[in-house]
Each structure stands twice: as structure tokens, then as C-alpha cells.
Amino acid sequence: MEQVSITIPEPNDKQKLFLADQHRHVAYGGARGGGKSWAVRVKAFLLSMCWPGIKILIVRRTYKELINNHIVPLQAMIPREVARYNKTDKVFTFSNGSTIWFGYCANDSDLDQYQGAEYDVIFIDEATQLKEEWIKKINLAVRQPNGMPKRTYYTCNPGGVSHNYIKRLFITRQYEDKEIPENYSFTQALVQDNKAMMENNPEYVAELEALPPKLREAWLYGSWDIFEGQFFEDFVDRPEHYKDRTFTHVIDPFEIPDNWKIYRSFDWGYAKPFSCGWWAIDTDGVAYRILELYGCTQTPNEGVKWTPDKVFSEIHRIETEHRWLKDKKIIGVADPAIWDAETGESIAEVAARHYVHFSPGDNKRLPGWLQVHYRLAFDENGFPMMYIFSNCKAFIRTIPMLLYDEHKVEDLDTDGEDHVADEVRYFCMSRPIKPRMAPAPDEYATNPMNLFLDIPKADVMSATKRPRMEIIGGD
Ligand SMILES: Nc1ncnc2c1ncn2[C@@H]1O[C@H](COP(=O)(O)OP(=O)(O)OP(=O)(O)O)[C@@H](O)[C@H]1O
Ligand SMILES: [Mg+2]
After folding, report:
1. DSSP conformation class of 142
2. Over residues 22-28, mean pLDDT
3. Beta carbon of 160 within 6 Å of any ligand 1 atom
4. How far is 125 from 234, CA to CA, in rounded Å?
């Protein structure tokens, strides 16, 4: 038979530890970009080659992620003479009888595919994205001893539904009945350990550096302890409350120039408060929360109950009477749930009857919170991309009270009074911005031009600081 040669790039030092690890439960990563998915693919391939007949499963949350992170790269890596991929069964079959299968798990019902199935080795890529009970059930599919290695590999970042479970097993190492401590091993890998990424994709590192402080701690430095306490630590109502803050988001109202765009964002509270915010956008894209309407849709102990009709007739009255809003085209964005019409007329239909129109907001939570954080971030001159007029009392009262969720740790605790926050999130997602760099990033690492310049760092720094004309026409 013809010889086939396969070249695999050299693993980095952390990947070498992972590849050589022989514990029953092996975890790797603990931060973004450390070369986790690469290590999974290479280890699965090497096991298949070394152990004829071995049965391997690679799990990710969704099928799309499996295709992008594993199936397509493995097809590129493994010659067809060595293994063939069957799309229908989602399996690579090696000429030595080994197989690599793929499974996804985004819902309870997806677990059915693992019922009764048996594998020698299971990889759970991005394990913290899967619920603890799913991970435990998937682990039941590691089959009885048959002379082959029996292992479960987990790759992980802090955050996600099973943050606390993975943290307990591999970071704090607090074990419960039947969990044998010696069976668990963890290798931490940060993006800095992944030389390939540092060299070929410095923008990725720059993106991690531009994350809001807590996510940066988690994903760039691999901290598992940071998702606790106040969710919007970056909101500064009164700088005199903080030792190290000189800038604030809360400002006195001023007259809104006629040419600024106006937005309205809205969150409906079913038997809870509703929140409506009006935003003015200046010519640099900076958002000012200028007005708000906040009230309870249930009869509270005191005050009035806001029926949908009352809410929208009041919004319409404000928009036709207030000097900042009247005669303006107002762009409305709202919780997509207001289009659900479980009891006849939907909330969106009631709104439309009162001439209040919305588009459905983008309800993705984590990207939405990131957008709010990006807008709150101050640049090096102390300018954020979002200001709050001091008359917006509901924002100023509720945003500092919100806490991180104990279970879905990078999200906020929805038991808090989060209606203003949700409505702000819909607004921010309707005008997404790029993260502004944290002050003083490493210029060499973040300048894409350096990719094609093979000159020492000091020279690049001085070259990029020269006037532009000199670089274009120059040496
Ligand atoms: N040893 C290596 N040699 C060459 N390239 C590598 C190596 N390790 C990782 N890479 C490349 O680095 C990039 C990031 O690696 P990978 O996708 O495995 O990281 P990750 O930790 O899974 O990232 P994320 O947290 O974003 O999922 C990929 O392009 C991958 O192919
Ligand atoms: Mg990955």
C-alpha cells in the first residue's frame, strides 16, 4: 500500500501536556484562544491512529460549531486514504477500524442520541456551555473496560451554564461521593501559550484586551472567580463615590440639537415593571438617554396599575408634546416577546393602535451585555459612548443594583430589577459599536501592518509613528 505522510504542526508546551495526559478526566484551557479545539482534533486523530478500532466522540453545543471547529478542519487534516467522512452518520471511519463520531447538545432532547451509545473516549469541547446534567449523562456513554484508553476530555473557558461544575472539578477540586480526586487533571492554557495565534492573529488578542474588565479577567487571564457582585461595575453615577473615578456617565440635561437621531427602546413587564427609554444620538454616534418612562403593570402597593393602553397612550402623549421628541422621526426597538399574542391582541398591536411602532430587538443576551459595556467604557480622555441625563431616575437607581447570576455566571441575575437593563440592551444591539481599546494596548501586537513587516519591534513602533506619507512613499 502506498505510504501517506501527514504533517501536524508542533504542539505548544501546554498542548504537549494535554496530549500526554492519561487521567480519566482531562480538562484543558480555562481561557480563550489557548489552542483548545486544535488540541482536541489532534488528540482525537492520534488516538485513532494508535488504537485500531477505538471509538471516539467529539461533542459541541451545536452542529454548526461542530462543522466549523472540527469536521471541516479534520477533513482538511486527514487524507482520504487514512479515513473517510460519512456526512449522514457524521463519522470518520479510519482504515484501521477506528471511528470519530460527532454529537451536539443544545437541548434536553439532544441527549437521546447518547442513550445506549458507547465510546472509549469522549471530548467535550467548550464543556462549560453544556449543562452539568448533560455532561454527566454523556459521560455514562464511556464504555466498559476493553483494553482501550477510557477518557473524557473537557475544554473550557470560564463562564457558561456549567462554570461552577467545571470549576469545582478542576479548579477548586472539591469532590463529592464517587468522584475520585486522582482521576481529574487540568492544564491551564492562555492565548499567550498559543504561539500560532499570537503570531498570526494579533487582532484576536487585541479583542480580548478590549473586553470589559471582568470578562477580560476571565477570558484573557483565565480567572474563574470574577463573576460575582455588581454586574455594571463600569457605570459611574457619582464619581465622588469611588476612589479612582474622575469621569461620570450621568450629566445634566441639555437641549437636543434638531439634527440628532432619536430612538425609543422598550421592555414590557408581564406583571412586572415596564421600561421605555428615549435616546438622542449625536453626530459622533454617542448615545444620550434623555427621557424615560417606567412603571408597574401589576397593581403595586401604592400608585397606579399601568395597562398596555395606558402605557402606550402615555408614550404617544410624551412623543407628541415633549419639545425634544415632537415632530421627530422616532426609531423604536423592543423586546421581541411583545409580538407574542397569547391572549388575543399582542402588546405590539396595542402599541400600534396608539401610533407607537417598534422593530423587534435582538435578544441575544451576552452579546447585548457586551454592547452595553462597550458603550459605558471610557476612552483615555474620559469619554464614554453613552451618557445618562440626570432626570432618568429608573436607570440611575436600578442599573447599579444588578448582580451577576449565580448559575449562568456571565449573565446578570434576572431576579433583580432588570427591565431598564433589558431595554438598554435592545437599544445598544440596534446600534452596535466596536469595543474601544483599553488605554495603552501593545501597539506592536495590535497593528495588523506588523504581520508583513519582518523587522524588530522597536523599529516598527517608530516606523508606524512616522507621518503617513513617509510610510507610503518610503523605504
Ligand atoms: N500547535 C499549533 N500549531 C499551529 N496552529 C495552532 C496550534 N494550536 C492552535 N493553533 C491555531 O490557533 C488558532 C486558535 O486555536 P483554537 O481554535 O484551537 O483555540 P481555542 O482555544 O479553541 O479558541 P476559542 O477559545 O476561541 O475557542 C487556530 O487557528 C488554530 O488552528
Ligand atoms: Mg475553540
Report:
1. B
2. 97
3. no
4. 31
- Contact status, residue 45 vs residue 74, Cβ threshold 8 Å: yes
Decide whether any atom of ligand 1 lies within 6 Å of the 73 Cβ: no
Mean pLDDT for 260-288 is: 94
What are the residues whose beta carbons fall under 8 Å from the beta carbon of 125, sequence distance 6 or more?
A: 36, 37, 40, 58, 59, 60, 65, 69, 70, 155
- Which atom of ligand 1 is closest in space to residue 9's alpha carbon? 3
Q: Whose CA is nearest to atom 26 of ligand 1?
A: 33
Instruction: Name which of 186, 202, 134 is nearest 30 in CA terms.
Output: 186
> Strand ranges (DSSP E) for 248-286?
250-251, 261-267, 273-281
Pocket flag, ligand 1, residue 222 (CB < 6 Å) = no
Residue-wise pLDDT tens digits, 173-228: 999 989 999 999 999 999 999 999 999 999 999 889 888 888 888 999 999 987 87
The 10s digit of each residue's pLDDT in 457-466 is: 233 223 222 2
| CA dihedral angle for residue 324, residue 325, residue 326, residue 332, rounded to 10 degrees | 170
- Specify the DSSP element, H or E, that contains 184: strand 184-188
What is the Å distance from ligand 1's center to 191 Cα?
9
Helix axes 365-376, 419-430, angle to 10 degrees: 80
Residue with cell 506588523: 450
> What is the layout of strands, in order, in the sheet containing 359-360?
250-251, 386-389, 287-296, 273-281, 261-267, 330-334, 359-360
Residue identifier of the C-alpha nearest atom 23 of ligand 1: 33
Give a three-class secondary structure readout of 14-52: HHHHHHHCCCCEEEEECCCCCCHHHHHHHHHHHHHHHCC
